[in-house]
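Reviewer comment 2.1 asked that we show a complete input and output for one of the modelled complexes. We chose the inosinic acid case, as it is the one discussed in the main text.
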Amino acid sequence: MELVFATNNKHKLEEIQNLLGDKIQLLSLNDISFFEEIPEDFDTLQENALQKARHIYDKFKRNCFADDTGLEIDFLKGAPGVMSARYAGLNCSFEDNVVKVLNELEGAENRKARFRTVIALILNGKEYFFEGIVDGEILTNNHGTGGFGYDPVFRPLGYDKSFAEMEMNEKNEISHRARAAFKLVDFLKNQ
Ligand code: IMP
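Response of the prediction step:
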């Protein structure tokens, strides 16, 4: 069976393809010759993920799924949330976003945060959602050089290092995206 993953992020494709094994073949947006930007302009991760999946399903009538992730910080009332990619402005860098978050949390005692991923799947016209969460806290400065995004300032609960200090495999076992992907894979294997 072939399944479109509405992304061109090689890392994400590889991660989920590994979990799926060889019975399900993932196709990227490039693989189906789709080269447009899909808007992500809703207020929730669920709506954004669904919008991306519907966009592809409506156009190609192929089974597909899409993901959307946000970092939710309690002290910032859930921000950056759906704005995580562009928190410091359009075309900002990961570093800009991290600096903005650290500034806004300066002096804050409550540094609790979580990464949340929602995957929206459209299978034979039916819509399904899978959520993955990893709880943790925002550190007071950068730790480590691995990963991407907010990894240098996010320490998952129960660990003494940031995501950016972990080996990729270690992060991929516990990450928000992996947890959502495990649920997706379980579901697909039972179909
Ligand atoms: P996306 O929905 O996967 O594109 O994620 C949106 C934004 O959330 C990214 O641009 C990153 O800033 C942040 N993000 C998503 N996943 C991670 C992660 O695993 N580590 C750190 N930041 C992440």
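The radius of gyration is 17 Å. We note this here for comparison with the apo prediction described in Section 3.2.
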